[in-house]
Design brief:
The chain is an alpha+beta fold. It has 15 helices and 16 strands. Helix 6 crosses helix 12. It binds 3,4-dihydroxyphenylalanine (DAH).
Length: 426
């Protein structure tokens, strides 16, 4: 189960996806103003993003606008540094190659039909991210534990579905949105707080389904399945596929597509027939639509044999030089595997403890040198105090780490865990 906004009872199992230096990246100032429309002072503030085309090849938003010491903000420096990286816009990066392969599929099968957006600002309103796509008020994804809030009304989008309603309102009827999405989460080889998603939406008119003799919903669901099976074959070749019923707040009925690939059933995407309420609010009362969302890293990891999600962020030439524009078939060749180093840490929990907060601290200290944070022991004593022991795996993708270096990281983690999480180290 990988899709973040699926059935809440199934959350958190397995891979979650459903989530260079390009010369002319454009998180443009204008794409970001939509977030700010309700409040003039906020808007004014956002009018001063710092353009730093030299440094990152992109536009930078002033750090103090995104990372602030105030309780409504939980964006750390490490996340700020990812904004504007736009890996998906590099044509020789695995994510850019995959994006272009998906675009090719739509261009070939629906010439000039789908509008494509790959540079929409990842800072959106909580309304766009949640309310506009009917995410329930008490859904876990709205919590500060799961989502990065810039302030109480503004978030780093946690899915590309955040753009659906706005684009529909603007009159688009066929569109693809691809972008970086942000989620607070645990740490392992398939989880990273920033990843990439693609969203697709297609709107139909009464003429479309009336001619078929089918009801509107069955017509849209049929078209959706044909389209996405075609996409899966385009990416993975002749594979066995199956449809699984599921739940999303924004679609009904909702499905997941799975393919049998490398001896396993692999979830490829989530999709469904758009909730009528979303169309109605965008002024489309006589229409029906479908939508899908897929996580690019998840697919790129199997297509390119990439073993660890951190590699997508590597600027090591031994990684970046392995991929070629337009070549989906390349298999990544590991240049060397450096040994991991494990450090255990036990503490008595406080009431407010969450694993996501712990992981944020570890990433803040160790960055991409942390490979995994895993709970290895958990018990409650007679007094009702609960102890957790976490094993942190440190490993660089690029070099051997020294003992001194790791010890320093670990001491730093211990210090911060104690001071920021109010736990008692054992
Ligand atoms: N937004 C969902 C997620 O992040 C993915 C998704 C599922 C998008 C179904 C859709 C959809 O448009 O119809 O988990």
């Amino acid at each position: 189960m990988s899709i973040f906004l699926s059935n809440p009872t199934l959350l958190r199992n397995g891979f979650r996806s459903l989530m260079f230096l390009t010369p002319s990246v454009s998180i443009s100032y204008s794409t970001c103003t939509s977030v700010l429309s309700s409040d003039d002072s906020r808007r004014k503030k956002w009018r001063q993003p710092v353009v730093s085309a030299l440094e990152l090849g992109g536009v930078k938003i002033a750090k103090e606008d995104v990372v602030r010491e105030d309780p409504t903000n939980n964006v750390p420096d490490s996340i700020f540094s990812k904004l504007g990286m736009q890996l998906h816009r590099r044509p020789t990066h695995p994510l850019g190659i995959l994006k272009n392969a998906i675009f090719d599929y739509f261009d070939t099968n629906y010439p000039n039909k789908f509008d494509k957006f790959d540079d929409l600002c990842p800072i959106v309103s909580a309304k766009e991210n949640f309310d506009d796509v009917l995410v329930p008020a008490d859904h876990v994804s709205r919590s500060y534990n799961d989502t990065y809030y810039v302030d109480s009304e503004t978030v780093l989008r946690c899915h590309t579905s955040a753009h659906q309603a706005d684009l529909l309102r603007k009159g688009h009827t066929h569109f693809l949105v691809i972008g970086d999405v942000y989620r607070r989460d645990s740490i392992d080889a398939t989880h990273y707080p920033v990843f990439h998603q693609m969203e697709g939406v297609r709107v139909f008119c009464p003429d479309d389904w009336e001619a078929s003799g089918m009801d509107a919903t069955s017509y849209a669901a049929g078209d959706l399945k044909t389209c996405l099976e075609g996409l899966a074959s385009h990416l993975f070749g002749a594979v066995e596929m199956r449809w699984v019923d599921t739940y999303f707040p924004f679609t009904n009925p909702s499905f997941e597509l799975e393919i049998y690939f490398q001896d396993k059933w692999l979830e490829v995407l989530g999709c469904g027939v758009t909730e009528q309420e979303i169309l109605k609010r965008s002024g489309k009362t006589n229409n029906v639509a479908w939508a899908f969302g897929l996580g690019l890293e998840r697919l790129a990891m199997v297509l390119f044999d990439i073993p660890d999600i951190r590699l997508f962020w590597s600027s090591d030439e031994r990684f970046t030089s392995q991929f070629l524009k337009g070549e989906l078939g390349t298999k990544f060749k590991p240049y060397s595997k450096f040994p991991p180093c494990f450090k255990d840490m036990s503490f008595w929990l406080s009431d407010s403890f969450t694993e996501n907060n712990l992981c944020e601290i570890v990433r803040g200290v160790a960055g991409d040198l942390v490979e995994e944070v895993r709970l290895i022991d958990n018990f409650t004593n007679k007094k009702g105090m609960t102890s957790h022991c976490y094993r942190i795996a440190y490993r660089s993708m690029e070099r051997s780490l020294t003992d001194d270096e790791i010890n320093e990281l670990q001491w730093n983690v211990r210090d911060q865990v104690q001071s920021k999480l109010s736990v008692v180290l054992r």
